[in-house]
Amino acid sequence: MKRREWKQLDRSRWYHRHIGSAGSSGRGYLKTCRSCGERIYLKAGLDGEWRPYESWLYGTVEEGEWKLHDCER
Predict the structure, then answer these.
(1) Which class for 26: exposed (0-12), middle (13-18), buried (19 or more C-beta within 10 A)?
(2) Cα dihedral 9, 25, 67, 31 sign
(3) How far apart are CA 55 and CA 32, in angstroms?
(4) pLDDT 10s digits, 17-67
(5) Which of 23, 36, 45, 62 is least surrounded by Cβ atoms within 10 Å, i.e. has the fewest?
(6) Cα separations (Å) of 64 from 15, 43, 73?
(7) CB-based contacts of 1: which residues, under 8 Å, 6+ apart?
């Protein structure tokens, strides 16, 4: 991965953590799904469980929408 791509990814992580998660715990990060290869947002819930969500940064949901990732395996 090029340095520019890492910077963009870091900005995306920061945005999801600090702005895109208003009203929630804000603990999460972007990742590629191992099953389908799409970019997803992994977020730790208040119960400590990590759950995969669709990422609006990649156009799979509307901005601010929280939809669990459901890929075809």
Answers:
(1) middle
(2) positive
(3) 10
(4) 554 544 444 578 899 999 998 999 999 888 889 999 998 888 888 888 889
(5) 23
(6) 11, 14, 26
(7) 9
Kindly tell me if the per-residue pLDDT of 3 is higher than 70. no
Give residue limits of the domains in the chain: 3-58
SS3 44: strand
Residue whose structure tokens are 């990422």: 55
Alpha-carbon separation of residue 32 from 9, 20, 53, 55, 58 (angstroms): 12, 19, 11, 10, 11
pTM: 0.59
Give the single-character DSSP code of 58: G
User: Could you tell me which residues come within 8 angstroms of residue 5 by beta carbon, excluding any fewer than 6 positions away?
Assistant: none
